[in-house]
From TrEMBL:
Name the record gives this protein: Uncharacterized protein
InterPro entries, sorted: PLAC_motif_containing
PANTHER family for the chain: DUF614 FAMILY PROTEIN-RELATED
Organism placement in taxonomy: Eukaryota, Viridiplantae, Streptophyta, Embryophyta, Tracheophyta
Organism, as annotated: Oryza meridionalis
Length: 150
């Protein structure tokens, strides 16, 4: 006699690519310091987001400098920055579409950068620390392995 095969029950949860962002696109004024920094120096906010999204393979300074160069030379830095929004959506299953990413970054780039920064913060990262310090902080916060004793 064969054991009963498990049957698939109903699956609940959020479909891939439809999780809501932790803050709205126009919640950018909730953090005045971040808002001011991003409106006047978006290269800093972008550099911080890019370093965490790229898991330390690029630095804040390198990404920020490339942002400035693209902005000054072409005015098309939004094409570069919208790719990071796409990377975040793919990584965290966030709602949105590639065309929407580009439109958001074209029409209101500071709002998009702030939303991305806040999303990383809501997921436990502190973008101003960079990737490596965030990893050290998470490793230090990990609980020690406990063993049962007699």
């Amino acid at each position: 006699m064969q054991p009963d095969k498990p049957t698939a029950g109903p699956v609940s949860g959020v479909p891939v690519g439809s999780a809501p962002w932790s803050s709205g696109l126009f919640d950018c004024f909730d953090d005045y310091g971040l808002c001011c920094m991003t409106w006047w120096c978006p290269c800093i906010t972008f550099g911080r987001v890019a370093e965490v999204v790229d898991r330390g393979s690029t630095s804040c300074g390198d990404s920020g400098a490339l942002y400035v160069l693209l902005s000054v030379l072409t005015g098309c830095q939004w094409i570069y920055t919208c790719t990071y929004r796409g990377k975040m959506r793919a990584e965290y299953g966030l709602s949105g579409e590639p065309c929407g990413d580009c439109c958001i970054h074209f029409w209101c780039e500071p709002c998009a950068l702030i939303q991305e920064y806040r999303e990383l913060a809501a997921r436990g990262y502190d973008p101003k620390l960079g990737w490596h310090l965030n990893m050290e902080r998470h490793a230090a916060a990990a609980p020690a392995v406990q063993h049962m004793g007699r």
